[in-house]
Amino acid sequence: MIGRPETKEKRHQYLLKELANSRFKKLSPINTVCWGIALLLYAPIGFCLFGLRTITLILYLFLCYTILPKKWRSKLAIEFLLPVLGLKNQIKQIENLSNTIKDKPFIMVCNHISYYDSMIIKSVYNNIGVKKFSLIAATLLGGKLQFKLLEQIDFIERLIFTKGTQANKNEKEKTRSEIINLLNHKNNPEWLPILVFPEGQVHSGKFLLRYEKFCFGLNVPILPVAARLNNPWPVNLWRIQEYPIVSTFWFLFLPWVEWDFTILSLQNIKANETASMFAQRIQGLTASELKIDSSDFTLYDFSELL
Length: 306
Known about the structure:
By secondary structure, this protein is of the alpha/beta class. It has one domain (about 10-305): Glycerol-3-phosphate (1)-acyltransferase (3-Layer(aba) Sandwich). The protein contains 10 helices and 9 strands. It has helices at about 10-20, 30-65, 70-85, 95-100, 115-125, 145-150, 170-185, 245-255, 275-290, 300-305; strands spanning about 85-90, 105-110, 135-140, 155-160, 195, 205-210, 220-230, 255-265, 295. The strands form 2 sheets. A 7-stranded mixed sheet has the order 1-8-7-2-5-3-4, sandwiched between helices. A two-stranded parallel sheet has the order 6-9. α1 (about 10-20) crosses α10. The chain starts with 7 loop residues before the first helix and ends with a helix.
């Protein structure tokens, strides 16, 4: 566990040192030359891909907001749009989700590695026949537009925003009431899975941010998901203090990028275990699967930098 320095200055210093990665990965001199030449040769293809994919994405969104029936929107995105955009995924231990979906309610929690995780996770649910899900987003750093967009294209059925531990008492009660209302639909045949990104902020994945505890004290099972990007290209897709549109350019410029999801076993809170302890345990299980460290840094530490 990476500790969180007490002073803001030390926190900023540590985060900038660990996360201030360059655009390109550090390689040996010979590999740098080889990849440099390859990138120059690939650039015309990459710019063509970026242009075609951008046009395709704009056309798809235009159709969603005009004439495309709602029932076709997510199906078209999964089967056509994501492959065209070069956004792939592979899923390990999907049986853990298939078995859990029968024993509702539960909350799926996943670490946050890109601005497109919600869209890609939709394809995970799609593999077991689930058409939509409910999303609880812990964020202070914007992001509402992308989630509202996912609602529009019929990926998300219900959306709840929370400030996590930074919320005041009334906001916490409101969030808790909204989540419990979702969980109380467990006997409804149209009940939808609930997805949470408890870190609340996209980052480089060098370590996990602290899992916000708001969803861990509801006395419902938690299904952890460990996500990583399989990025064979010598390009870092996320950089601190960078606008999401820049990251989007590289996702659409590169031939493809693949998400690797490992669905861990269902976890229940233990006797005498607090919500904070349960959240920390789930964070530790996820970090162990990803072979990285967990940390006590929060999304609010990031907000001070961004």
